[in-house]
Amino acid sequence: MENQDPLAPREEETDPHFEPVIKLTEQVDTKTLEEDEDVLFKMRAKLFRFEATSSEWKERGTGDVRLLAHKENKKVRLVMRRDKTLKVCANHAITADMRLQPNIGSDRSWVWKVAADYSESPPTSETLAIRFANAENAGEFKSQFEAAQKANAAISGGAPAVPTPTEEKKEEPEEEEKKEEKKEE
Q: Is 111 within 8 Å of 100 (Cβ atoms)?
C-alpha cells in the first residue's frame, strides 16, 4: 500500500454540471437611438477634447466617427462611439456656426468648438479635435462636415454663418441704393 497524498489528484475524474440559477430565455432589444437615422459618412478616427484647466489635449476615444441624418426631419448630427465598449464619446448637432480649423502642425487633423455635446450628462461646451489616418481621410471628413452644415442650415431656414462670395456681391448693390436714396433727400 502506497502512501498517498490526500491532495493529490485521483484517477477518477468528475465532470461537474451546474444548473443556472436564472434562465435567460428572452432576447432583450437594445436601442441606440440611431435606428431612425441614415449613415452619411463613417470613418475611423481618434477624438480629443481640450481641457482648459490644464491647457492640454485629453484623448476621448478611438472609433468610427459618423454623420447621421434623421429619416424624418433630415437634421444631421455627429456621433462617435469608442471601439469595443461602444460608449458614446461625441454626440452633437452640426450647426452653421461651427468652423473646422486645421490643427497646428497636422494635415490630417481638425479642431472645432461645440456649444453642447451630449456624450456626457449634462451637455457641455467643448473644443474637440479629430485625427484621421491620412490627409485624404481628413479632407473627406471636412467636405462631408461642411455639406452637413449647409443641409442643416437649409432645414432650419438659417443662413450660413459666413456669406459666400455671391452673397457678398448681392449685398453691395443694396447698400449703394441706400446711399443714393440718402443723397437724393
A: yes
Pairwise CA distance, residues 25 & 144, whole Å: 43
140 exposure class (CB count in 10 Å sphere: 0-12, 13-18, 19+): middle
Q: Do 142 and 67 form a contact (C-beta atoms < 8 A)?
A: no
134-181 pLDDT, tens digit each: 999 999 999 999 999 999 999 877 554 444 333 333 334 444 444 444
Among the CATH numbers 1.10.287.130, 1.10.10.10, 2.30.29.30, 3.40.718.10, which is that of 37-158?
A: 2.30.29.30
Read off the amino acid at residue 141: F
Quote the CA–CA distance of 26 and 33 in Å, as a whole number. Answer: 21
